[in-house]
Amino acid sequence: xxxxxxxxxxxxxPAPPRRFPWLNxxxxxxxCLSTLLVGVFLMADFNGTISQTTIERLWxxxxxxxxxxxxxxxxxxxxxxxxxxxxxxxxxxDVDASLPYFIPFPSIVGTMGAxxxxxxxxxxxxxxxxxxxxxxxxxxxxxxxxxxASLGQAHFVAKTTVDGAIELGEPLIFKLVQHxxxxxxxxxxxxxxxxxxxxxxxxFLATALNLLPVAQLDGGHIAYAIFRGxxxxxSRVVVAILVPLAIFYWVGWWVWIVLLLxxxxxxxxxxxxxxxxxxxxxxxAWIGLALLILCFMPAPxxx
Length: 303
What we know:
Elements: H1 22-46, H2 54-60, H3 69-92, E1 101-104, E2 111-115, H4 125-151, E3 155-158, E4 167-168, H5 172-181, E5 189-192, H6 195-210, H7 218-227, H8 231-248, H9 252-263, H10 279-295, E6 301-302
Antiparallel strand pairs: 1-2, 3-5, 4-6
Helix pairs in contact: 1-3, 3-4, 3-6, 4-5, 4-6, 4-7, 4-10, 6-10, 7-8, 7-10, 8-9
């Protein structure tokens, strides 16, 4: 704001002080605890020591919580790097964004993931694409490292011995790494994953779900940056494809369909939508598509 006195004296309006992010910290702590508890049961199951007394033992021997630490650190590390990829990209482009919000939830992994809030509009489509793809790339890299490091600890079990258990889908990246490391299960056998391997598997699933080119998911940001006016039609096609997947492969797709319809399929424009993309943005978009193909599973879970 310019003063009416003298020449061009500028008076800066100080930004309101940021409050300590108590909610982010509390949610982070609760998610650490929920994933730690899940890790205890996963490790007990992996070692063949799980029983009805496992919960009682938690009260009698709190030290066994340490057995859940590898899983908790792995899954929190993947989620943290994914969200920090978005956050740091926002900081680079001077876009106001919150710290990550982690979501504790009583599920097979102890969480529903994490997210950041972008509080300001994004300047152009190139910035939007960079912010959208940064998270999946960061999370995927960490998941692959953990997957490779832990896969050797897994063991093979006969398929007939796991009836009634939860059968996990195998994304293409899963099969490729197994093949490269020579750890593909023999005919009639399944891989019984170490908890860290399971955390990496969840990281692949989270990457695929986020990269779906629909609405304002990470993949939706990429689709808008590349195709702009066709984004809503692409979103509709993706939702239409999810319907037969929900009918024939995995009922969980219905949840995603409902959520996407509630969140609406359109994408807000950037401040300067007409600025063209650079060649590197197109390369990053192809990388995002490759990660989606590598991580996608028609049926992530089966009983």
